[in-house]
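Researcher: Go.
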Amino acid sequence: MPIRIFGFQALWSPYFLLLLILVTAFYFLVTIKWRNKFEGSEPLTKRQAILFVTSILVLYAVKGSPVDLLGHIMFTYHMIQMAILYLVVAPLFLRGVPWWVWKKVINHRAVKPVFNFFTKPLIALVLFNGLFSIYHLPIVFDYIKMSMFLHSLYTIGLFMFALFMWWPLVNDMPDGKRLSGLKKVGYIFADGILLTPACGLIIFATDPVYATYSDAGSWLQAMALCVPTGTLQQLNLSGPELFSSMPIIEDQQLGGVIMKIIQEIVYGCMLAFVFFEWVQRDKEETEKMEASAMMRHQTDYTK
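Model: Structure:
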């Protein structure tokens, strides 16, 4: 059965799209028109603008397009959403917002102590991966998926902790706390290891573990998060099997595999970025040392 039966609002989330357009407009107002109100501000670079707009477009693709609706029908799409939202959108968003904007936000007296605590590398790693794993415990997952308030709250909260987790790796503040090259490599490996148990639980389960994808009543209640109740009542649906020929257990296992694959790709790209950044920094330091030594040699020779 085609998913277009759920209607335009369920498929394309127009209110969410409007919100993202307003956020993007506000971003350009702050970084261009109101830039002089920020101490130490710098002109918005083309790279920053592209990264931010890309993060917004990808965010809409996974949370506002039909992918979001499919995420309530098939577990595979849900895991694609989770992987892209927390492993792709979060770092793009962090790098897209100029450092002087982050500095203004972080230095607020109500934000600074909280931010400094949650961005400590060990705490950031444990909390994000811990909350991600807890969310995918069947009893927690099904309970949250059947409540609009809890689902929205947990999604936003987990995204905040994803930002905390990525901060030590990708922040570019001149006076910000950043990990060294070797520590970044260890941080990425630790992140990958901590996320593995949740994926393993899903991949190697021999039975469907989530009622919101296997039980008709629970599934319909979860579908109410993205489909108007009146539409659901009119359609009189029996379950997710109407929209997918894939067995539930295979869909569940595929979701876990895809989550792990996306994670490995993202972390592999990040490792490559860290490595080349590390090599470039060492090269620049070596050149500075050689230049300094040459100047000393010339000075001694002149004397």
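Model: The chain has one domain: 3-302.
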